[in-house]
Structure formats: C-alpha cells, structure tokens
C-alpha cells in the first residue's frame, strides 16, 4: 500500500465547476434584423453588460455601458446620434470603435481622446444574417476572420429554417469538449457504436472527422462550429454558435441547413432525417439528442483538470491543449 494515492480520493472537493476566464474569439451576438439603424439595447455577454447599437448608416456597435466621463450607464437613456452613441448625462459621444467624437460643451477636449479609444468597444461584423463580436480578454484586435459558410451565405441552393437556442449552466469549453468526447455518444446518447474520431488543429481552427466521413466538423475558435453530416450522398449541416454569457453560463444556438432538394425526393427525406437526428428526434431511432441528455451532465459536473482517461476516449487532452490558446495571459 506504499503508493496509495490519498490525494486522488480527496481531489473532487477541490474541483471547480468552471475554472476559466471568457475565451477570445468571434461570438454570435444576435440576429442582424433584430436591431434596426438607430436602435440600442443592453445585452449580457462575456460576463458583463454591454450596450449594443446600430448606427444610422447601419453599422453594428457594442461597447462597455459605463461612460468614461462620469460613469453613466449609456444603455439607460443613451441614444444613437448619426454614427455615434450618445451618453444621456452630458451628451458626450462615442463612435463604434470607442473613440470620443464629441463633447458638446468642451473648449479643450482631454488630450487622450485624440490618441486612442477611451471606451471599450468590441469589433463587430454582420455576417450570415447575424451580428458577431470579437471578444479578447486583453482588448487585442481580431487575429482571424470568420469563414465563408455557403449554407448560410449563398443566395440560392440551400434551405432550412430550423434553429434553436438552449442555455446551459456551464462554461463554453465544457460544451465544446463534447465534440471530441466520442465515447459519450454511445453511453449517454445511445449511439450503436463509439465512432472513430480524428482531429487536426491549425491555429484557431480544428477539423474533426467522426465516423470516417459521417460527420465532418470545422471548428473556428470557441464560438463557431460547422458540422456536416453525410448519409447516402446527402449532406445536412448543423451550424452552432455558442455564447459565453457568464463564467458559468452559456447559450448554445444552432441552425440546421441543407441543399434545397426538390420536395418529395429521396434526398429531401434523407436530409430531413439527418436534421431530426441531430436534434435527437429522428423516427425509428433510439438515440437521444443533446437536449435531453447533455444538459443534465453539463449543468451538474465539475471540471477535472487531470482526468483519468482510457484508450477508448477521444482526443480530450489534445483538445484542451488547443483550446488553451483562447485564454491569453492565463497562468498555467
Ligand atoms: S457621464 Fe456620460 S457624458 Fe457625463
Ligand atoms: Fe453530447
């Protein structure tokens, strides 16, 4: 009994549920058509509140709510004036990059306003009919761009309006880890076998192949995931765009798309079946979708930094190593 490891037995008391900061990356904010030019509203994302607005010319903006002047919350009584966000308290104005553009009563503006942004603002784009914000814990500019996704961007050729949104009481990394955890597909979801998986990593991008071509996944940082399921030559696509709401709360959003097969054809039926399968409600299938099973695990688990793994597990440690790049400045 010399190598009896007491620490191992006591370790779970030290574990935390979500021992991570908010990772860097591009994240979905909301659908573009939910915010008209001139509108503003408050949103909670990345573990804080933000003012989300659209300028008169149609550009999206997202800034810290607290005015650098005397700290008024610009999401309560503030307004969009031309290309700027105007604070209600003394009408200082900021553009969507966070630069102070106008102090209506100042003869001399503070010198720093000429040199840099004074209000934290997140780089934003409208893409795929959605607003996306670049979050970086140390306010760095984007280091990569959102990819072209034909299923969401091509004017014609694709169809599918099914989408959903679910909230989980855990951090975004724990949800993302599900993608490489192939053993749980059999035991939690009831898949007939544990499918083989291969993952390759390239900067912020990870490519997954699950079941030898059955699911091919492209992962772009922590906030965008495109999984293409192929059966009998028909491909259906699940696009998921999870948001880190707080350190312990994430919102998982998904859209389901496929080629615009003629109604009543075999291809259209297979595509529908694939989408049903992804959601976990396909006819004649025993397996359970994430909605009924993953959340029970996510909402209650703790993160094990030193998991005990076996040979049948997916590439969980490689995934974690890859994910670490999204926590710049985080101590080992
Ligand atoms: S606090 Fe915003 S302008 Fe004074
Ligand atoms: Fe799962």
Descriptors:
332 residues; alpha+beta; Rieske Iron-sulfur Protein; Naphthalene 1,2-dioxygenase Alpha Subunit, Chain A, domain 1; binds FE2/S2 (inorganic) cluster
Task: Walk me through what this model shows.
By secondary structure, this protein is an alpha+beta fold. It folds into two domains: 25-135, Rieske [2Fe-2S] iron-sulphur domain (Rieske Iron-sulfur Protein, 3-layer Sandwich); 155-326, Naphthalene 1,2-dioxygenase Alpha Subunit, Chain A, domain 1 (Alpha-Beta Complex), CATH 3.90.380. 17% of the residues lie in helices and 31% in strands. The protein is built from eight helices and 19 strands. It has helices spanning 6-10, 112-115, 150-153, 172-177, 183-187, 266-279, 290-298, 316-323, and strands at residues 25-31, 40-45, 48-54, 60-63, 79-81, 84-86, 93-95, 100-102, 124-127, 130-135, 158-159, 163-168, 197-202, 205-210, 215-220, 224-231, 234-240, 243-246, 249-259. Strands 11, 12, 13, 14, 15, 16, 17, 18 and 19 form a nine-stranded antiparallel β-sheet that branches. It starts with 5 loop residues before the first helix and ends in a 9-residue tail after the last helix. The model has no long low-confidence stretch (mean pLDDT 94). FE2/S2 (inorganic) cluster (FES) binds next to loops.
């Amino acid at each position: 009994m010399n190598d009896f490891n007491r620490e191992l037995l006591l370790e779970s008391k030290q574990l935390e549920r979500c021992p991570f900061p908010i990772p860097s990356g591009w994240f979905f904010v909301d659908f573009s058509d939910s915010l008209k030019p001139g509108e503003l509203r408050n949103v909670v994302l990345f573990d804080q509140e933000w003012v989300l607005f659209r300028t008169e010319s149609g550009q999206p903006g997202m800034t810290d709510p607290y005015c650098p002047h005397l700290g008024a919350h610009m999401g309560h009584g503030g307004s969009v004036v031309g290309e700027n966000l105007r604070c209600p308290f003394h009408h200082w104005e900021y553009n969507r990059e966070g630069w102070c553009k106008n102090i209506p009563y100042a003869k001399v503006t503070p010198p720093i306003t000429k040199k840099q942004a004074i209000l934290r603002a997140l780089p934003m784009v409208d893409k795929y009919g959605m607003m996306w914000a670049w979050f970086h814990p140390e306010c760095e500019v984007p280091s990569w761009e959102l990819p072209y996704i034909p299923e969401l961007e091509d004017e014609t050729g694709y169809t599918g309006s099914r989408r959903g949104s679910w909230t989980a009481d855990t951090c975004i990394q724990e949800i993302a880890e599900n993608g490489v955890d192939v053993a749980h597909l059999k035991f939690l979801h009831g898949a007939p076998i544990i499918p083989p998986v291969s993952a390759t990593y390239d900067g912020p991008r990870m490519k997954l192949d699950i079941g030898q071509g059955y699911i091919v996944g492209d992962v772009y940082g922590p906030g965008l995931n495109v999984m293409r399921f192929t059966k009998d030559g028909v491909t259906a696509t699940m696009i998921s765009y999870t948001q880190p709401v707080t350190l312990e709360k994430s919102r998982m959003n998904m859209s389901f798309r496929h080629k615009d097969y003629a109604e009543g054809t075999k291809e259209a039926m297979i595509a529908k079946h694939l989408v049903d399968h992804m959601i976990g409600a396909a006819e004649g299938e025993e397996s359970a979708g994430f909605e009924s099973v993953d959340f029970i695990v996510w909402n209650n688990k703790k993160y094990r930094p030193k998991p005990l793994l076996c040979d049948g597990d997916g590439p969980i440690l490689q995934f974690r190593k890859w994910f670490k790049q999204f926590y710049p400045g985080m101590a080992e």
